[in-house]
């Protein structure tokens, strides 16, 4: 890791199947390589020694922050604000210390809550009883015990796995731990490598391997084919969507619908857009969605520019002047992020 840092880089973070395939095609088949994934831990910071993340869930579409046991008993990351049942666990020393309605397995007591809650509410509910927490699953035997006792096997249940991250703290959007199920992290889930041959991600302990360093370019977000220009990154959509979808899509990738601040920026966009298509921009009600002032405009010199109440705006084909349009109409769109500046929610 320090050798990468000496180069101004970091151990590689693999954030998509495309990046995984790129690495696989460029690595020597018979060698293992370190990657930059952090230890996988439970909410109390203890390292996971067992997981059951299903091989079909290679995309951590919600950043690997909150996990549920879904209907087929695999562990799946999901939106932390979703409503699910949950399982509380309390570790007990040997003795009849479980409550009358608790279930016991080994040295722990379990409560299966059938009131659906968000992840944070479930966590607080469990922790309202001293020593109790969202369940930490440490073995295949414990997994099987829970599977056999879930009151409703058609529903998801929150578990206490949280924040599977890379070394810089960023959440996983993709994994290649292997399948069909990841069973045991035989070396404590502390350090991970790309194994020879399959290039699955396996944990390991204190061995010497080759390694891959990575350095992020200024425009290296979650979207492919971003374009850098004058301190901003731009993404040009392939599909048509309504204004609100376009706005949400950009924000989900930590960008905003484009704010155009000069003739030079307008000219740059003109050279990158299909002049047969419309494109949503981040202008709404004569103000930019990111809060910047309107210091430049490209409204046409005719009255039809504001014939839809000036609520949502797009760039019209041919020289791309700005017209207002019904926000429910479908157009392409342009996302923008100023490098080094946070996007605006």
Describe it.
The chain has 345 residues and is α+β, with helices and mostly antiparallel strands. The protein has two domains: 11-213, no CATH class; 227-338, Mannose-Binding Protein A, subunit A (Mannose-Binding Protein A, Chain A). The chain has helices at residues 2-6, 17-26, 119-127, 140-149, 243-252, 263-272; strands spanning 10-11, 33-35, 66-69, 75-77, 84-91, 103-105, 108-117, 132-134, 157-162, 191-194, 201-204, 210-211, 213-214, 227-229, 232-236, 256-257, 279-280, 312-315, 322-325, 332-338. The strands form four sheets. Strands 3, 4, 5, 6, 7, 8 and 9 form a seven-stranded mixed β-sheet that branches. Strands 14, 15, 16, 17, 18, 19 and 20 form a seven-stranded mixed β-sheet that branches. A four-stranded mixed β-sheet has the order 11-10-2-12, with no helix packed on it. The radius of gyration is 25 Å and the shape is globular. The mean pLDDT is 77.
List keywords for this structure.
2 domains; 7-stranded mixed beta sheet; 345 residues; Mannose-Binding Protein A, Chain A; alpha+beta
Count the helices. How many? 6
Low-confidence stretches: none
Task: Estimate the helix proportion, in percent.
Answer: 10-25%
Mean pLDDT: 77
Number of domains: 2
What is the ordering of alpha helices and beta strands?
Answer: HEHEEEEEEHEHEEEEEEEHEHEEEE
Shape: globular
Structural class: alpha+beta
Instruction: Determine Rg (CA atoms, Å).
Output: 25 Å
How many beta-strand segments? 20
Distance separating the two termini: 34 Å
For the biggest sheet, the summary is: 7 strands, mixed
Strand percentage lies at 15-25%
């Amino acid at each position: 890791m320090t050798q990468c840092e000496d180069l101004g880089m970091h151990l590689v973070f693999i954030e998509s199947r495309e990046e995984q395939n790129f690495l696989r095609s460029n690595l020597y088949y018979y060698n293992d390589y370190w990657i930059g994934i952090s230890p996988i831990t439970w909410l109390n910071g203890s390292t996971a020694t067992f997981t059951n993340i299903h091989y079909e869930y290679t995309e951590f579409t919600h950043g690997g922050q909150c996990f549920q046991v879904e209907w087929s008993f695999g562990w799946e990351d999901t939106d932390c604000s979703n409503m699910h049942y949950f399982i509380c666990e309390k570790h007990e020393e040997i003795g009849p210390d479980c409550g009358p309605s608790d279930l016991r397995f080994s040295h722990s007591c379990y409560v299966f809550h059938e009131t659906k809650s968000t992840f944070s509410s479930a966590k607080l509910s469990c922790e309202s009883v001293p020593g109790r927490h969202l369940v930490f699953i440490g073995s295949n035997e414990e997994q099987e015990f829970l599977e056999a006792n879930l009151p409703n096997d058609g529903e998801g249940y929150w578990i206490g796995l949280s924040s599977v991250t890379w070394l810089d703290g960023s959440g996983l959007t993709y994994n290649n731990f292997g399948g069909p199920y990841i069973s045991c992290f035989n070396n404590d889930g502390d350090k991970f490598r790309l194994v020879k041959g399959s290039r699955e991600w396996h944990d390991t302990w204190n061995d010497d391997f080759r390694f891959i360093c990575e350095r992020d370019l200024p425009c290296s977000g979650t979207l492919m084919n971003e374009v850098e220009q004058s301190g901003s990154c731009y993404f040009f959509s392939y599909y048509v969507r309504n204004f609100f979808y376009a706005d949400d899509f950009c924000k989900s990738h930590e960008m905003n619908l484009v704010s155009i601040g000069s003739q030079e920026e307008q000219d740059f966009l003109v050279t990158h857009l299909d002049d047969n298509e419309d494109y949503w921009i981040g202008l709404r009600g004569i103000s930019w969605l990111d809060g910047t002032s309107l210091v430049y405009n490209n409204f046409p010199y005719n009255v039809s520019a504001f014939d839809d109440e000036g609520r949502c705006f797009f760039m019209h084909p041919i020289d791309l002047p700005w017209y207002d349009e019904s926000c429910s109409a479908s157009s392409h769109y342009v996302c923008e992020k100023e490098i080094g500046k946070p996007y605006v929610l």
